[in-house]
Design goal:
With about 200 residues, this protein is mostly helical. It has one domain. The chain contains 5 helices and 2 strands, in the order αααββαα. It has a two-stranded antiparallel sheet. It is globular, with a radius of gyration of 20 Å. The protein starts with a helix and ends with a helix.
Length: about 200
């Protein structure tokens, strides 16, 4: 009889552990791009916050971490990068249509100075690093000027993509780096380039 109670207790503990683990790792609902989409702080694909008070650049270089924490594409992971992000042209297969992103950009422009031509509607975690293509939490208006701006972040995106597809760093590491401080990576790229000249 005593052995039966012990077995029951062990089973209860195992079931509780499995349930707890699944709850801790269960994604919440994400807000996908739609006509009425607005930032949702409960994105299913949101990366854990890597915010710190010390960034390499000034605040204008980064999106609001509460509105745009970054979100990943659940269809992309380290195991399938050579069938997804490392395939030339793959991002074209997941990029939202321009008429959809233009509507989002126009709505976001109501909150910033300047014209639409001054900004890129950017994915914080770029598509080529497994960023969610249609999660509002992964989109922000990134200014082109003054430099550094959108074009310099594009350099970082391309560099990290090359590093991931070349096996130098993991997909998760690249996603964390670009989310935490893309400008820090930009500076590191240019310091190393200067040392190699």
């Amino acid at each position: 009889m005593r052995l039966r109670y012990i077995v029951v207790i062990v089973l209860i503990v195992i079931v509780a552990a499995v349930i707890t683990r699944s709850l801790l790792h269960k994604p919440a609902a994400s807000s996908r791009i739609s006509e009425t989409a607005s930032p949702n702080p409960e994105s299913e694909n949101r990366l854990p916050s890597t915010e710190s008070s010390a960034k390499a650049g000034e605040p204008r270089l980064y999106p609001d971490p509460f509105q745009t924490p970054g979100a990943t594409n659940p269809s992309v992971n380290q195991a399938n990068i050579y069938e997804t992000i490392c395939v030339p042209g793959w991002t074209k297969t997941v990029r939202p249509p321009s008429h959809v992103t233009q509507r989002i950009k126009r709505r976001m422009m109501a909150n910033v100075p300047g014209s639409s031509a001054d900004y890129e509607l950017d994915h914080l975690i770029p598509l080529e690093l497994g960023g969610c293509p249609d999660c509002i939490e992964n989109l922000w208006l990134e200014p082109y000027a003054p430099e550094p701006g959108a074009r310099q972040k594009d350099e970082v995106e391309n560099y990290l993509h090359k590093e991931v597809c070349g096996g130098s760093i993991s997909l998760d590491e690249a996603q964390r780096e670009i989310t935490a401080d893309w400008y820090k990576v930009y500076l590191e790229i240019h310091v190393h380039a200067g040392q190699n000249e």
